[in-house]
Amino acid sequence: MDLTNVYIGFALATFAGLSTGIGSLLGLYSKFENKRLLSLALGFSAGVMIYVSFMELLLLSFDSLGGLYGDTYGKLIGVTAFIAGLLIMLFIDQLFDHHSIADFISRSSNKEESLLIRTGIFSAIALAIHNFPEGFATFTAAVYDPAVGVTLAIAIAIHNIPEGLAVSVPIYYATKSKSKAFWISFASGLAEPLGAIVGFLIFRTVYNEALFGISFALCAGIMIYVSLNELLPVSKEYGKPSDPIMGVTAGIIVMAISLIPVSYTHLTLPTTPYV
User: Fold this and answer.
1) 0.85 exceeded by the pTM?
2) 219 CB contacts (<8 Å, ≥6 apart)?
3) What is the pLDDT of residues 179-207, one digit of tens each?
4) Would you kindly state where each structural domain of the chain is located, as residue ranges?
5) Which H/E stretch holds residue 111?
6) Rounded to a whole number, what is the distance in angstroms from the first to the last CA of the chain?
């Protein structure tokens, strides 16, 4: 694997994770009130992630695993990994009661200061754990093909902006300190480059096409869960009832057109790991 792709993967995961700081700055230093635009952007992001997950990552997984284990067993392994990705995110959400970004915002609107800061810090911890597999997914996609990694990173970055708001706003109202609110929110995004580092260590130690195929399906499950459980509910909260589906439709159409020139059937994995 080209080391350039490894560096690109790290850069994209870092970019996606640190976009939580953008959301924090929007909440602390601006009067960003165009909620419908945010709603459409979140729906668009969901459409991008859904299309890439089903039409790129999952198909790549089936192709890779099918070549190793046969079509039937390859798809069975891929589907199992896909379901595992969904269950991992479900477990994280249940463990930390992390239902949606909108829940954090609404729960923190009329609380005492002590509850506000606890809500903000809890949100930061939950979101950091939630973001970890997203960093792994972005890195995995970028290492295999930077074009897919870029699309995922942009979609996740848009998704992380309201997360930054969710963390920073309650902490600011509790402490009256913009710096504390910003840095706590910013730190929650560092989990994504950490996820990329874990991905690098895994692929450096155990590097074969089967692992890549399983990872693609796993990442597809993670992305679908994020889209359905995070992006679309929050999009509905911020905009009109029709905005989420409008955004999703636009995202799918744009990705379908933009990826037509890209062919993944000729991509091959090297026989030696990167260093």
Assistant:
1) no
2) 53, 57, 85, 133, 136, 137, 140, 141
3) 888 888 888 888 889 988 988 888 777 76
4) 12-29+36-257
5) none
6) 9
